Amino acid sequence: MVIFILQIPAYYFFAKQEFVRRPRQHSTFVLPFCCKIKNVSAQIVKLNEKRKNLTANIREYSLILFTCIRGFKNFLSKNFKI
Q1: pLDDT tens column, 55-64
Q2: Which end of the chain is more exposed for a tag (fewer CB within 10 A), N or C?
Q3: In which domain, by residue range, is 75 found?
């Protein structure tokens, strides 16, 4: 148990030294993780914008559809006496 506890700081120390010595090899593991977090937050912002645009489009289309239905109903009532 004591050996295992002593190995943990040594592992982190050597891992850190490896990262300092050869950052290019390890950046494929560390940097993309940070970039993924940024990309995910950017994607969430884009999705929110798309959602806002979509709801605006749905409102606009439903208004057009409602106007068309009302106009068609008025046309039918004038011409065919419903």
Answers
A1: 888 888 888 8
A2: N
A3: 33-82
